[in-house]
Write a structure and sequence with these properties.
InterPro entries: Auxin_Ser/Thr_Kinase, Leu-rich_rpt, LRR_dom_sf, LRR_N_plant-typ, TIM_sf, Triosephosphate_isomerase. This protein is mostly beta strands. The protein is built from 4 helices and 28 strands.
């Protein structure tokens, strides 16, 4: 299987395209394969009534005891009605694009027919419905709830003009396997945790569909999920759940506002494509997403642990590139001795960083100055910092640090005010 040509020891996935030949930092989408697995378009889906689709009905029609549909206004698309829907019983007459089983409507297939109008809430009365395809039609208005259509297997609505989706839309769809809702101008909505009740869900595609908020943690329980496409939305939060569904083959999360690190994906043995560019992701690229041509510089490894203590701030992820923090001036907050090529200063003052001070700072034994003032750091000062042999200054003023201050050499200047230390500082 093809993979990246260089190592990704750290990533921001901001779409910049920088890589380093030794210990590189990804600023592009991380992919496991050069070829993307295409979503199947051979989905057998169906549509029920002309009246259900357009929200207009010409006559009273009965589809079994639980499928009675009330009389509504006549169809606006007269040509469509005349050519495709005849008679009073869609399961006996020549109703093109309508599938039935034992006298019950099961399939509605009305894709790419240039249908306009709205989708009537009566579609929810078609209790035997298994598949719906309304894609590539300018249908508009609010989507009605499909809650508790327990036999619904396939739902294809992409490239329509629906304006909103109800909160209970996916509730009770226990047999749902495939959903395609790309390119729909829906009002902002969030993925409901109730979708995790669709335990057979294998394909969920809702790119450019107005989705906001976080991916529900409950999605980790979707053990059949193979293709997850949620790109070009306004998703926020972490993506820890994506490391759980073992059948995932393709993950597309690009162009959102996701944050935090990429989780370990080693459980995803079938994964072929992972795309997450144009987000605010920061952290170490999991080993499961990279091939190692050579080790990172030891200083880089230490600095990444330091950044981990701060929660991988985006400022650091954006500026720390390459495999030598002393020869590249873009390494924010890092000062070096040019002759010795050693790190002598860490200056992360006034950055609004949160998190803790990593004990790994003490592994940078050439440090002379550590300046962390005016941030939101909590926890204690690691004891190991007192052992730094040439340290001259430690400035942690104006944070939320607490606990006991380690005993430093008398030659070390300590600036500790604006914290909550135990021993009177």
């Amino acid at each position: 299987m093809a993979g990246p040509s260089t190592v990704a020891a750290h990533y921001s996935l901001l779409g910049g395209g920088f890589t380093d030949e030794r210990c590189c930092f990804y600023f592009v989408s991380v992919r496991r394969s050069e070829s993307l697995m295409e979503r199947s378009v051979e989905m057998l889906v169906d549509l029920d009534l002309h009246s259900v689709v357009l929200g207009h009905f010409e006559r009273r029609m009965l589809f079994g005891e639980s499928d009675e549909i009330a009389s509504h206004n006549s169809l606006t698309d007269e040509q469509f009605r005349r050519k495709r829907l005849f008679g009073t019983d869609p399961c006996e007459g020549p109703w093109i694009n309508v599938g039935c089983d034992k006298g019950r409507v099961t399939d509605l297939v009305f894709y790419d027919l240039q249908l306009s109008g709205t989708l009537h809430p009566s579609i929810a009365k078609l209790s035997a419905l298994q598949s719906v395809d309304l894609s590539n039609n300018p249908l508009s208005g609010p989507l009605p709830s499909l809650a508790d259509l327990e036999f619904l297997d396939t739902l294809i609505l992409h490239d329509t003009a629906f304006s909103s989706i109800p909160t209970d839309f996916f509730s009770g769809l226990i047999r749902l396997r495939r959903v395609s809702m790309d390119n729909i101008p829906l009002a902002p909505w969030s993925l409901p945790s109730s979708l995790s009740g669709s335990s057979n869900l294998s394909d969920l595609s809702a790119s450019n569909a107005g989705i906001t908020g976080a991916i529900p943690d409950e999605f980790a329980s979707l053990s059949s999920l193979a293709n997850l496409t949620l790109s070009h939305n306004n998703l926020t939060g972490h993506i820890s759940m994506i490391g759980a569904p073992p059948q995932l083959v393709r993950i597309e999360l690009q162009s959102n506002h996701l944050t935090g690190p990429i989780p370990d994906l080693s459980n995803l043995t079938l994964l072929q494509s992972f795309q997450a560019r144009d987000n605010d992701l920061t952290g170490i690229v999991p080993l499961s997403l990279r091939t190692v041509p050579g080790p990172c510089d030891a200083r880089v490894t230490i600095l990444l642990e330091v950044a981990a203590g701060f929660g991988y701030p985006l400022e650091l992820a954006s500026s720390w590139t390459g495999n030598d923090p002393c020869t590249d001036s873009r390494w924010l907050g890092i000062g070096c001795d040019a002759k010795a090529n050693d790190i002598v200063v860490l200056d992360f003052s006034n950055r609004n960083f949160s998190g803790t001070i990593s004990s790994n700072v003490a592994e940078l034994t050439s440090l002379k100055k550590i300046v962390l003032s005016n941030n939101r750091l909590h926890g204690s000062i690691p004891e190991s910092l007192a052992a730094l042999p040439v340290l001259q200054l430690l400035d942690v003023t104006n944070n939320n640090l607490s606990g006991k201050v380690p005993k430093f050499r008398s030659s070390v200047t300590l600036k500790l005010s604006g914290n909550h230390f135990d021993n009177g500082y």
